[in-house]
Here is the input.
Amino acid sequence: MHILLLNEYFPPDTSATAKMAAMIVEALAERHRVTVLAGRPSYDPSERHPFYLLRREVQGNVTVERVGSTTYPRFRMKGRVSNYLTYLSLAVTRALAIRADVILSMTDPPIMGLAGAFVSKLSRRPFVYNIRDLYPDMALGGQIVRPSHWVEGWEKLHRRALRRASRVIVLGEDMRDRIVAKGVDPARVVIVRDGAQLPESLPPADHPAAQEIRCGFPFVLLHAGNLGFYGAWETLIRAAKLLENDGIGLVFVGDGATRRQIEASAGASRAVRFLPFRPPQQVPYVLAAGDLHVVTVRRGLEGVVVPSKLYPILAAGRAVLAVAPEETDVARIVRRTGCGVAVSPDDPAGVAEAVRALARDPERIEHMGRRAREIAVHYDRVTQLKIFTQTIEEAVAE
Here is the structure.
């Protein structure tokens, strides 16, 4: 069959959704023909494109069409909105001319699901909605927008799009709960986690690259990844300050919109370090460097944000500290499997005590690491992508 994927970002864009879209397309193309309708690269792209109205690239079963959207830097909101609007106006028009068997929409830009439902209705084709980020819930929870009549209107339109979808693919149990609570038939909501590739071997924690990341701390609580608005950063920083005399360090590897605020909150604390992103080939050493890896979601964003960083941690066989509400997917998995501990995102003292107790119990840390590695097979990326493909096939078959 012919699948039309709608998402503004696609490589050479370097966003998380661009990378995930590329993996999804690769999996789908093993069995089907796929057309990706994207914009001109604008999200920290590895290459820039000159202006064009439409550009087409064909390789095997995959056709990538790019419309001539603007490419302003994403860090300025006006420029990002311009990129969104120009992409949507051109992509929707082009999508209506492509005779696909099914419309698959992701969530870049945030109203892409609405656009996918619109194209589906006019073209009379089934619609599969892959929710990566849940809007407008995320915009409200992250205090990007305030409650208003137009946000209420956005939510009403979004619920219509959800009801139109033959299948809604979500990232975790908590997100599924949110979608079902909006009135969607539970039978049409499918969990497909991002998963991770299982490495054949793991680097030793005493490797020089891993030791460099440890920054000399005897015990390392490590957060590797984006420092966005979704995390309970203040809780982590306050917990780290309570651990300053215990030889325990909190190391951040990465960057993001809230890094400056987190650095300001940390101040001169000797228990906190900030390191830049490492190149992909060094990720195994980053994972090996942490005695305990933190995955965090602040309260109010349960089911809105489902961190994919959990799965590489499990695949690396490392213990997990979930600083997240108990309803979140990560807290449920940690509690259910014993691969780590979960603590409230509003309890710095509780976080500090949990970390201190684990630092004093290396056998427990080792056991949690073994459990992480054991359960990682259930979140293998290849298996998850097979479920994704089967879900789309079922939607079309119906």
In short: Residues 77-95 form the longest helix (19 residues). The chain has two domains: 2-195+380-397, 208-378. The mean pLDDT is 95.
